[in-house]
Amino acid sequence: MIGADACPVLTVPLRDERDIAAARSAVSRELDKRGARALRKVRFVTAVSEIVRNAVDHGGGGEMSVFVKERPLEIWVRCTDTGPGIADIDEALQDGFSTARSMGKGLGGAKRLVDSFEITSRVGGGTTVEISAAL
Amino acid sequence: MSITSLEEVLKILREDFDDILQQWLETQREEGIRRPDLFSDSESYRQAKNLLTAFASGMTSASQEGRPNLDDPSWADLRAVLEEITHERVERGVSAGEMATFVLALKTPLFMRLRNNLKDSPDALVSEISRLSRMIDAFAMRTNEVFIEEREQIIQRQRDEMMELSTPVVQLWERILTIPLIGTLDSVRAQEVMENLLNSIVEHRAEVVIVDITGVRVVDTQVAQHLLRTAAAVRLMGAESIISGISPKIAQTMVELGVDVGEITTRPTIRAALALAMNRVGFEIRANKESARD
Fold it and tell me: Looking at the record's lineage, which domain of life comes first (chain B) (predicted)?
């Protein structure tokens, strides 16, 4: 969970494909600002790309917020949508599971790319994903 | 008379329309937003007159209750005129601030007239002024919204133009094509890339296609899937595709995502991809003996 010691940095609305690119560059800029190493950045931004794409494609849009924690320096991203929710989260995290005709590796892949990954979802109540990485 | 009605304002607009119009234009001049450099007197007059006419007719029919709501059907005329004038003025270089001031300048003549007409009933005066003020403010805010919408359209247009620019298929050698991808590869772009590429394969009788992703910063599962589908379509056309420009960072990330590129040929650089492609079509790149440096 993003604790009270995390400082909110920015929020990007997620409505369409363009916002996915905007969310990616916003996170990328924040990581650059804090001197993240290149590989760290590519991994984290790729994970962000996966979760915000899910919010847009399957969650009907929502928003992404970026938080920063000091000591130790960590970046946190929370992505929420107001979509139909995920009935079986364990199943959704398995590679190859897809409700659309996609690879089905997005969520599980994103989880492997970050230091912490937390997903909460309620059928009919939308989905929230929180990810973080140490810098 | 209800305390919230704008009867006095309506009366003023009915009886002194031309005076108000003249004074409005006068106020615009005084505030330095008349812009005679951009608009002739007759144009300014026509714009102000159309706006004031639409304003007066909208006020007559609109509900006076609650917050002024410009989305109400009774304001349809006003909205249309406002959009048209904002468009005209913005196109000639008027700023958003000037456009709002242009509208807000209407307060001065109306307030002055109200003060004269209602000097014996301060309650009615305050009520009319506050309601009128909110209405004109809503009106000025709308011009700002129109302004922003226009800007967004420009941004969208530029984006579309950029997208067309960024998927050129280039012939490198006989039967060798390359398509350098830059930025993001969303579904729309991926579709364009695919179409351009497949048509060019037919046109140039290409046998090898180099898809260079040096300029793509993030390869997530969707981008990977688009790349794999493109490669599969290229293969169906009887050509071979080489994906080049996969950086070590992206390679590691793709492995962790669980993306399997299968049998698609990949090369780290476009240079290595070109050497391979030349080889495939029966050429080789060799240093010239005389000028070769060791």
Answer: Bacteria
